[in-house]
Amino acid sequence: MDIRPNHTIYINNINDKVKKEELKRSLYALLSQFGQIVDIVAMKTMKMRGQAFVIFKELTAATNALRQLQGFPFYNKPMRIQYAKTDSEVIAKMKGTYGDKEKKKKEKKKPQELPANQTKKAAAVVPAAPVHPPAAQVPDNPPNYILFLTNLPEETNEMMLSMLFNQFPGFKEVRLVPGKHDISFVEFESDVQAGVAKDALQGFRITATCAMKITYAKK
């Protein structure tokens, strides 16, 4: 029986060597292009590592993410994505169906089901970074196929930026600067394609406190 579409997608086959905080930030950077993310749930136990739940506010966002990122190479492993079996508690409360679900659970509780307080300990619920308006216009150089990124958080890595810019046509590569975590270069095939990515991601927040600044690199 097929799982009914809902706001929450379940992702597995994730590289289990990725630290939980980095995983959450990378998933947010990759998936926020599809719509507002309510929560990201990353498992901590050994048995549940390499898995995550991403809860979208809109059903269409969850559907688009599932279709477009199925098999996407995420930390060198293809993502396997499906709808979660049920809506998350957050979405159920928004829909007003949370009480119905709780009633059904009490009426027919599985023998092996863990109490609610234990299941909460097994997963770390991390609120998605807030959506902020684009940063103020920054001084720029003439159009160029290479972009210069500044104000990046310390934990930024090549994979994170690649996933963010890979959604735009013409993307070629990310080049980090050794010894300087807060700047990077991103190369596209043409200055027009670079400009599209620049306008779309200007002010994007990889973390809640760092709004990315993007200019054309000096020729």
Helical percentage: 25-40%
Order of helices and strands: EHEEHEEEHHHEEHEEHEEE
CATH class category name of the largest domain: Alpha Beta
> Order of strands across the widest beta sheet?
6-1-3-2-7
Which stretches are low in confidence, meaning pLDDT under 50 for 5 or more residues running?
117-135
- End-to-end separation in angstroms reads 57 Å
How many beta strands in the DSSP annotation? 13
CATH superfamily of the largest domain: RRM (RNA recognition motif) domain
Largest sheet: 5 strands, antiparallel
Strand-residue fraction?
A: 25-35%
Class by alpha and beta content: alpha+beta
Q: Per the principal axes of the C-alpha atoms, what is the gross shape? A: elongated
Could you characterize what this model shows?
This protein starts with 7 loop residues before the first strand and ends with a strand. It folds into 2 domains: 6-89, RRM (RNA recognition motif) domain (Alpha-Beta Plaits, 2-Layer Sandwich); 144-214, Alpha-Beta Plaits (2-Layer Sandwich), CATH 3.30.70.330. It is 30% helix and 27% strand. It has helices spanning 20-31, 59-69, 89-95, 98-107, 116-122, 158-165, 191-201; strands spanning 8-12, 37-43, 52-56, 73-74, 77-78, 80-83, 123-127, 146-150, 171-177, 180-188, 205-207, 210-211, 213-216. Helix 1 packs parallel to helix 6 (158-165). By secondary structure, it is an alpha+beta fold. It comes from Takifugu bimaculatus. Belongs to the RRM U1 A/B'' family. GO terms for molecular function: RNA binding.
